[in-house]
Amino acid sequence: STMKYESVCGNGKVTILGEGKKDLEEKLEALGLITRHFSPESKHKFTEREASSVAVYRLDVNEISGKANL
Predict the structure, then answer these.
(1) What pLDDT was estimated at residue 31?
(2) Spatial distance between the Cα atoms of 25 and 21, rounded to a whole number of angstroms
(3) pTM of the predicted model, to two decimals?
(4) Other CB atoms closer than 10 Å to residue 31's CB: what's the count?
(5) How far apart are CA 18 and CA 31, in angstroms?
(6) How far apart are the C-alpha atoms of 67 and 20, rounded to whole Å?
(7) Which residues contact 32 (CB under 8 A, 6 or more apart)?
(8) Long-range contacts, 42-50 (Cβ 8 Å, 24+)
(9) pLDDT in tens, 45-62
């Protein structure tokens, strides 16, 4: 029998977003995107205080590949 699988492999640079104006705007945008992905009907708008209380990591992908045997 053949095993079924899906995999993704890649590399890139991870950056922890800080508290500066540019990073805070990026954090607010990212948190909104994540919220709408898991709860499309959500109307919640994150405040600067909420965004400042969580860590958000940005992954800049250099290479990515995937394979599957379904």
Answers:
(1) 97
(2) 6
(3) 0.75
(4) 17
(5) 14
(6) 39
(7) 45, 46
(8) 48/24
(9) 999 999 999 999 999 999
Q: Which residue has the tokens 């508290």?
A: 19
Single-letter code of the amino acid located at 58: R
User: pLDDT tens-digit profile of 1-16?
Assistant: 689 999 999 999 999 9
Q: Which helix (H) or strand (E) holds 22?
A: helix 21-38
| The two structure tokens encoding residue 34 | 């994540």
Residues in a beta bridge with 64: 10
C-alpha–C-alpha distance, residues 37 and 3, integer Å: 30
Do 30 and 15 touch, CB atoms closer than 8 A? no
* C-alpha dist (Å) from residue 31 to 47, 48, 52, 61, 66: 10, 11, 11, 19, 26
Dist CA 14 CA 8 (whole Å): 17
